[in-house]
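Example 513, ligand xanthosine-5'-monophosphate.
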Amino acid sequence: MNEQIVILDFGSQYTQVIARRIRECKVYSTIVHYNTPAAVIAEMNATGIILSGGPSSVYAKDAPLPDKAIFKLGIPVLGICFGLQVMARFLKGKVERGQKREYGKGTLHVKNARCPLFNALPRELQVWNSHGDKLTRLPDGFKAVATTDNSGFAAIENAKARFYGLQFHPEVVHTPRGKKIISNFVHKICGCGRKWTMRSYVEQSVEEIRVQVGKEKVILGLSGGVDSSVAAALIHKAIGKQLTCIFVNNGVLRANEAGVVKKVFGRNFKVKLHYEESTNLFIRKLRGVTDPETKRKIIGNTFIDVFQKATRKVGKAKFLAQGTLYPDVIESVPIGGNPAALIKSHHNVGGLPEKMKFKLLEPLRCLFKDEVRELGAELGLPREIVMRQPFPGPGLAVRILGEVTPERCEILRNADTIVVEEMKSNNLYYKIWQSFAVLLPVRSVGVMGDERTYDYTIAVRAVESKDGMTADWVKLPYKVLETLSNRIINEVSGVNRVCLDISSKPPATIEWE
Ligand code: XMP
């Protein structure tokens, strides 16, 4: 690897976002622990160093501090927020507790437009701050390059040493031109080219997986969703037959789900695939259950049991592979340490490994969803899989309100197939976050031909979202709604009414349960 930016992690929740921005600049980066010795960083052939933000104060007793010698390597350094304060502490500046915490949007005034960090950027920029301490005296050899209303030293530079510091966060989306600032650092200051691509990511991950796994066996729970599918394709590329995928049919899958997985992975990729047909077991366990959280728990626990048994059937494996993405890692941390603050129990992170004695293999852990899709395409997975909309682990069970019965599953599966077909044929499916049908367990009166009907209602849910955390309902064209309604009522027996869900998240959630 010729060029790489080494990111020292001081515990900021945005460290992975910095890495992502650097990947967007087509440059390779590695995140290392904040106290990684300077000699190790030199050996890594770092082209530049970024000091991440972090929650501490640089003067705290147990403050995380780097090896001071990193400033003697002759490598450009960019300190972000806490990273800037680290530079101040080591290079004879001064940091003090600010009068008021600077948090949220601010305006940056660039005073020295010749500073390469602000190359080809306007003199005024919207930036996002999140800090209590602030720099009150410049470190030796530094000049202020930009200010905010609250700080005379919002961006600082020592051009000779090629040291730069930013009090704000250029990596977050709330700093709209932040990506250009990072690009300026890696391209203009560190001199990196644009060599890194998804193909290099594949090559490197394959190498790392081979080293981590050695000759051991790996199992992976394949759901047919984007994440586990891409993880499977990547791991399969690395270790071939050492990988066995287990696909559990929990009875609440969409139509033809199992067929697609068997075709793509079994036939095309020749992945070792173990298919576990457990529909009856799941449906039996769900009988009479109406509470949403109880349904989720039953499905989660039953899945673990079935999966555990299946792992014994396929033979001893040392590693359990999961398609965990970076946002899963963050989202599964209870807010403020309070487990009750988790809105819904997402059982796709944790759970399995705790109950089984596996080592974890999570090759997508630092990637974001769109990057995983790009990776999937690079690995040759079909669009149908890489671009598919998210589907919850507990499947159709959280889209059938009240009790889950085989009859209701059948009705919802048929209605859902129509929604997916129509969204695809109207060129909408891949443009939005999710579109699906929900079965309401209330019956209402209708008339079909000359006969009175007393049937279920289907709600159509279509939402736009960036990350599933917030969402808005999609204003689908009337023509599409008309076709959806006609087709569902005419083709799905058991349904005589179709409604459209026009709730945003919050206050509603995307799934109904
Ligand atoms: P909610 O309903 O919480 O959903 O607004 C946000 C996103 O998460 C998906 N979702 C799940 N995904 N396991 C999953 O893998 C789950 O238990 C689960 N519950 C909801 C949902 O489809 C939406 O994209």
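Summary: The domain at 198-386 is CATH 3.40.50.620 (Rossmann fold).
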